[in-house]
Amino acid sequence: MPSSDGPLRPHLGIEVNPEHGLYAFFRKKEKDGKPYYDTVEPMDMTADQSGRAWTAAELRRKSFKDLHTLWYVVLRERNLLATQQAEARRMGANEQTLGLWAKAFRCRKTMARIKYVINERRLAYEGAMKIYGERREEALEADKIARKEAEEAERKRVAKEWARKRSNPVEDMVTRSLFETVPETVGQKA
């Protein structure tokens, strides 16, 4: 996609997409309404708006999606700072005066804390799954014991009923004679 400003490197005559992904490695600035990219920023203590590293307490309040997004924002900033440091080294500038190491340290610290918070969540999840598994096993064991007790109670009831019927032969005879006489009676009427 050709840019509306024409080629960014006119002496080569090559048109370059101003939204190219490699421009993310350089700090975008505007001058007179036109964007340009700074390869090495001079250290300006009054205009330096880079803040502090995120604390673990702040990160714990963030969702996983927010942490994921923040990770890549900080990673992009680290890449930008590394590009500036490499460019300063290439140009022979004093890297210490640019203050890049302090910004890079804050980025690394934030990334380490993001990993720490995610690891805390992973350990909490694994602990919860372990507790769930133990309680599930206990519930299954209790259900198995209750089922065995119910089966044993039913078995005892049937055995008791059978013993009662065997101990009272008159009732058993009445039941048998009732079933034996019904078909004969039906057969005689026909």
Choose one word for the global shape.
rod-shaped
Calculate Rg over CA atoms: 41 Å
Order of neighbouring strands in the sheet with most strands: 1-2
Number of domain modules: 2
Terminus-to-terminus distance: 104 Å
Please outline the major beta sheet.
Answer: 2 strands, antiparallel
What brief labels describe this structure?
single chain, 190 residues, mainly alpha, two-stranded antiparallel sheet
In short:
This protein is mainly α and 190 residues long. Helices cover 66% and strands 5% of the residues. The protein has helices at 56-60, 64-91, 95-98, 100-167, 169-189, and strands at 27-31, 34-38.
Describe this structure in words.
It is found in: Mitochondrion. This protein has 190 residues and is mostly helical. The chain has two domains: 1-38, no CATH class; 39-189, no CATH class. 66% of the residues lie in helices and 5% in strands. The protein is built from five helices and two strands; from the N terminus they run E-E-H-H-H-H-H. The protein has a two-stranded antiparallel sheet with strand order 1-2. Strand 1 (27-31) and strand 2 form a beta hairpin. The longest helix is centred in the C-terminal third of the chain and has 68 residues, at 100-167.
